[in-house]
Amino acid sequence: MKSNDLFKGKKVLVVGLAKSGEAAARLLHKMGAAVVVNDAKRYDENQQAKELERLGIKVICGHHPLSLLEENLDLVVKNPGIPYSNPIIKEAIHRGLSVVTEIEIASLISEAEIVAITGSNGKTTTTTLIHEMLKTSEREPLIAGNIGTVACEVAEKATSSQVIVLEASSFQLLGTEQFKPKVSVFLNLFDAHLDYHGTKDEYSLAKAKITANQSKDDYLVYNMDDPIVSKIANKSNATLIPFSVKQRLSKGLCIQQDSIYYNGQSIISLNSIVLPGAHNLENILAAIGAALTVGARLQQVRHVLQTFSGVEHRLQFVTEYKDRRFYNDSKATNILASQKALEAFEQPIVLLAGGLDRGNDFDDLIPSLGNVKALITFGETKDKLAKTAEEADVKTIVYADGMQEAVLAAFEKSEAGDVILLSPACASWDQYKTFEERGERFVEAVKSLETTLQS
């Protein structure tokens, strides 16, 4: 960790706990900052706040009093999930206070270089691939962010010989000012989280902050096939490493002669790659570019691509039962992610989809529903998804209340040779705390299917 004096004596307000808020509060307190924590959850129900208070940190729970901004604050650290429309955050910005997320703290204190990955879809897979590709290099990789440990916890212990592989969301990136990764990876940009950002332009601006402070000594690995990502890349000061699955490139990463090429060198044949889904080629190209840039061994890159079959909740193969193959893609929390999942299969699909209603429609999903023979839908968006399925001429539509019921209905509407796919195209928060919980309920329902059918 860089100098302990960076935040010494600074007055810092941490708004919102969860994992990132608690980690930031602990670290800043340890570094000598005068920390006040403010969380909406009542004190008597707030174990995190009680533990921080025992460390000597002042905690204010149950509401967000604007009076907390009247204490000559130097900094506000915001939990990424708290919207900027929150009155205390809105007022802090109005008063000209710096409002950041904890990845900003991580980047300021980290001795290790950071490889940061963002995009609307594929972040977790790409982050995991890069981490695995770096494992036998001289740069010991540490995984952080939305996947793994909170970034500032990792940065506190990281050394200059290591590299932090950081999955970064738009929520986190929007709260950055000096964030400067050694390598940025920008996968794609699609309408997502508009309930948080308001417009696609604002969402795009948040994502673009991943490269905003980079210089020519830094690198931006970017998707040349995405026009918005390319436009952002062309404004970056970083050294550009493009990738494309559609074009042949003399510099950067592309597909030609059924192999992946990097700067004209053949890296691996497509037949050797085990990760399913054409959409994962983009993630693979991005991961290769980033990993090799920070010292991955080519032999390890190839080994990972020949053995890595996916991450949990992202097109995760669960089991085969009665000649049906079950896949858990619970991390598909937007339309683009579900499009990619649906396009990964040639077999007939029974699709389980639905969840939190963010106000969008699902018309963009229609072209990807050609192989869907039945839709099992649930959650707040079930009526919208049913209407979309009707327009796509899906023959069978079933409403389900819970995951057990949905899995049973999916099996009953399927035949031997079918794929049964959970790919919700929606966030999980109407019925589940996280997409992980939703995926776990799906896996449990699948694994108990034989017992259910016998009862």
Question: How would you characterize the overall build of this protein?
Answer:
Pathway: Cell wall biogenesis; peptidoglycan biosynthesis. The chain folds into 3 domains: 9-100, Rossmann fold (3-Layer(aba) Sandwich), CATH 3.40.50.720; 103-307, Mur-like, catalytic domain (UDP-N-acetylmuramoyl-L-alanine:D-glutamate ligase); 316-454, Mur ligase, C-terminal domain (Protein-Tyrosine Phosphatase, Chain A), CATH 3.90.190. Helix 2 links the parallel strand 2 and strand 3. The protein has 17 helices and 20 strands. The radius of gyration is 23 Å and the shape is globular. The strands form 3 sheets. The protein has a 9-stranded mixed beta sheet with strand order 7-8-6-9-10-11-12-13-14, sandwiched between helices. Strands 15-16-20-17-18-19 form a 6-stranded mixed beta sheet, with helices on both faces. A 5-stranded parallel beta sheet has the order 3-2-1-4-5. The longest helix is centred in the middle third of the chain and has 14 residues, at 280-293. It has helices at residues 18-30, 47-54, 87-94, 102-109, 123-133, 151-157, 170-174, 194-197, 200-208, 227-234, 280-293, 298-307, 335-342, 382-391, 403-412, 435-447, 449-454, and strands spanning 11-15, 34-39, 58-61, 75-78, 99-100, 113-118, 140-145, 162-167, 183-186, 219-223, 239-244, 253-256, 259-262, 265-269, 316-321, 324-328, 349-353, 372-377, 396-399, 419-422. The chain is α/β, with parallel strands linked by helices and 455 residues long.
